[in-house]
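This section describes the prediction task in plain terms. A model, or a person checking by hand, is given the sequence of a single protein chain and must write out its three-dimensional structure as a string of tokens. No templates, partner chains or ligands are provided. The sample shown here is typical of the held-out split.
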Amino acid sequence: MADPAEQIPRISGIRTFARREHTRDLTGVDVAVVGVPFDTGASFRTGTRFGPEGIRSASTLLREYDPALDVAALEDLRIVDRGDVAIAPGNSERAVGEIAEQLEDIVKAGAIPLVLGGDHTIALAELRALAGRHGPLGLALLDAHADTWDSYRGERYFHGTPFRRAVEEGLIEPSRSLLAGMRGSLYSSADLADARELGFELVPWSELRELAADAYGERVRERLGEGPAFFSFDIDFVDPAFAPATGTPEVGGPTSAQALDLVRALRGIQIAGADVVEVSPPYDGPGQITSLCAANVAYAMLGLIALERA
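The expected answer:
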């Protein structure tokens, strides 16, 4: 596919991801980009319901060829923007069911959903849809938080619990999962200990920052082994100096360049589904640096998918 900018300048046109075609038709589609404008599960800052819109707007700058991965995913894959799912805000548990139902037809059609969030609660819905076709998946997570709490003030469905719920529902295999980037203050030492007791391997940022990106990638591939995986990227993984517009920012994290290197290091994993979540454009500056970072993370994910399918 020719670069759309050759026909219409980037400042014009409908804001789809990377200016891909907007369609509901899944015939021959490799990757379907889907927005999930949901932030009912946020425990601090809201606004991630506007994340898909912000990421799409920033993505208009993306071009066909990615020299960092030496791949032209936008040409090599049939990628469409399927628009946003329809959900009623206000009830997280109900929303998870609604989102999962609307992702199922993408998965059943053999396309890979690339989801733009939305707060991290939505990962549970994605995993329900994916596990319905693939069975339990491995998980590669880059996030400042493990998101394996049991509840928050009695609420079991919010952005701090999706991966515990996913384990309980048999959607992921902790023995094939690696969660990396955790940092910041905790309620207690049990926060991370509980994640390990569930069977997850954790690599906190204090350890991850000492690893070369390739070493991290090798560690993830060894942990995931063979079989389909879900790759989830919470934008709060990135230091708020580079990505301030998120619900629960944690200082002392990686730069945007470091984060992209870590994403690209995951060459060879079998991505069945992926997401970029927790972008809250109301907290971004006029330069939209958080949305730009998120758009480039999603672009790198597409590159990984293209390389794996080559």
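For orientation: Residues 4-309 form a domain with the Arginase; Chain A fold (CATH 3.40.800.10).
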